[in-house]
Amino acid sequence: MTTNRTRYHVGMNEIGLDSEYRIECLGDLDGARAWLEADVENTAEDAEDRSEFDACLVKLATIPDAEIVAEHRIDAYLFWVRAVEDCGCPERLRDDRSYAIQWGADDGQWHGSIVSSAMSGRDEADAYVADVQALAAPGVTVRAVEIRLTHTILPASTTAKPADVDHGPVAARTLRSGCRINLFDTDRLIYRVEYLHAGNYLRLHTVPPAGEHPGYFVFTKSPHDLVELISRGPAVDITGKPVGDAS
Predict the structure, then answer these.
(1) How close are the terminal C-alpha atoms of the chain, in Å?
(2) pTM beyond cutoff 0.85
(3) Strand partners, 80
(4) What DSSP line would sit under 157-209, residue for residue?
(5) Is 22 helix (H, G, I), strand (E, B) or coil?
(6) Which residues on adjacent β-strands are paired with residue 82?
(7) pLDDT tens per residue, range 150-203
(8) Which of 11, 139, 177, 194 is geometrically suited to a Cys-Cys bond with 203, CB 3.0 to 4.6 A?
C-alpha cells in the first residue's frame, strides 16, 4: 500500500507478550506523546511501586520529539511509539453517540430500534424513555440503548489487484472484506459483511474509494443479488492488520 503519509503507532505490552490493548494510530508526535504518557499513567495506577513510572513521566515531558519514537522500559512493561511510513490505518475523525428505543415483553426478547432526535444525550434519553414507558401497554418494558459510531477515513490508495479476479456480476454472497464493488454506480470498498436472518440477507458495510465521506454506509442485500465486482484488496483495521477474509 502506498499512501505517502507517516503516522505513529503507540502501544504497550508486558515484556515477552503481545499487546493486550488497542494500538493507537496518531498523525503527529504531540498526540503520540500524550497517548504514551496516558498509557504510562494508567499502568502506574495499578503498580505497587510507581516510582519508576513517575520518573518516566517526568522524562517523557521533557525529551525532544526524536526520542519519543522509541521503546521505553518500565518494570515489566514496554511502552513504545513507532513511526510507520505509508501507514494503511484508517484515520479516526470523531466518535458519535446516539440513542435508540427498544421495547421488551414477556418473551424476554428486545424488539425495535427507534432513533429519536429528542435523545441527544443520556439525560434526554432517560426522560424520553420515561414518557414512552408511561404510555406503554401493561407488561411492556422500554429502554434506551446507546449507539456508538466511530467515523474514519481509509487511505485513498490500496493494493487491490484487478488481475486477481474476473470483473463482472457476481453473487453478493461471494463478497468479503477488501472486495471493491460497483454498487448503485458507485465504487465502494467493503470492510465488513454480516449475515442476517439465518443467511437470508447480507449487511454490507462500505466506504467510498478515496474515503471522501467520513461516514460508513450500510447496504442490505440478498446473498443471491448480483453486484459488480471490480477487484479485491486488503481492508485494514486500526493496527494495520487485514480485516476478515480478503482472499
Answers:
(1) 16
(2) no
(3) 11, 71
(4) -----GGGS--EEEEGGG--TTEEEEETTEEEEEEEEEEETTTTEEEEEEE-T
(5) coil
(6) 9
(7) 555 555 444 444 444 567 888 888 887 778 888 878 888 887 777 775 557 788
(8) 194
